[in-house]
């Protein structure tokens, strides 16, 4: 798996170690083996690799190349497609603050671009918080860019659904549990391109590529370049917290569980704290956040509760939980209007 357990130095010279993650092969005909490995990972770190997922390395390389083309544009060109209230479009450096307790004065040193499920403006569904039309670079500025990202969005959704089947079996549910219309039949699926500009992180000064956080939804698929930076903390309550580096793995997705799956599983499966530390090198990653539909009620699964183990979280609608988390972590759009006026 390309992992080493020996001690090494992190980008900010704090002693860490490389985390050893389970590897799930989606082409493996032995589904029971995949279920066992995934369940073990979900109980331990909440992170694992997925390989042989059906997206070719050649196409993945093309998506990264197109991402770099966008982030190489002048800032004024990128700001023409600034994110809107539906979280579609460009997010500038410092727009997001994932760890406000430790990032009092600055946000994350990364820029991004959100692409969601395309819903026409005249569709009644477009009134919902995370549905709507996407924002795109002009075709004459980046020809072929939209087509590449739309194709990747479709293919990543199929990977996410395949992982969802294994998760369902690991929770003693029907294999198609997450395929229901109110879940991944009509998902809130968001592709986010990310670029870390080469700043050096320093947690003691509150400087991070991405501050410590858990993801919001069901699962996240993450493709990265070969630059390290992702770290996980298996025990968020430990004092001091212990951070482990996650190695990039060519052609693989790093998959992690989100808060909604932790709520569904009654805390059995972990939504693990993670962050990104910059080491002075530019870094690119591609995250695909997979959430259920707006109207999905996230509540403890019947297989994860008992008289002696009652639900630990109250039921909540997906749209309400996501809206609150996005509002808590992103800058108010009015600040950009003031800057441009």
UniProtKB/TrEMBL annotation:
Which positions carry the signal peptide feature in this UniProt record?
Answer: none
Location of the Fe2OG dioxygenase domain: 187-292
Which domain of life, per UniProt?
Answer: Eukaryota
Residues that span the membrane, as ranges:
none
- Keywords, ordered alphabetically: Iron, Metal-binding, Oxidoreductase
Mind telling me which InterPro entries this protein's record contains? Answer: DIOX_N (IPR026992), IPNS-like_FE2OG_OXY (IPR044861), IPNS-like_sf (IPR027443), Oxoglu/Fe-dep_dioxygenase_dom (IPR005123)
The UniProt entry, under Pfam families, shows: 2OG-FeII_Oxy (PF03171), DIOX_N (PF14226)
* GO molecular-function term, one example from the UniProt record: metal ion binding
Family of this protein: Belongs to the iron/ascorbate-dependent oxidoreductase family.
What name does this protein carry? Answer: Fe2OG dioxygenase domain-containing protein
At the highest ranks, the source species' classification is: Eukaryota, Viridiplantae, Streptophyta, Embryophyta, Tracheophyta
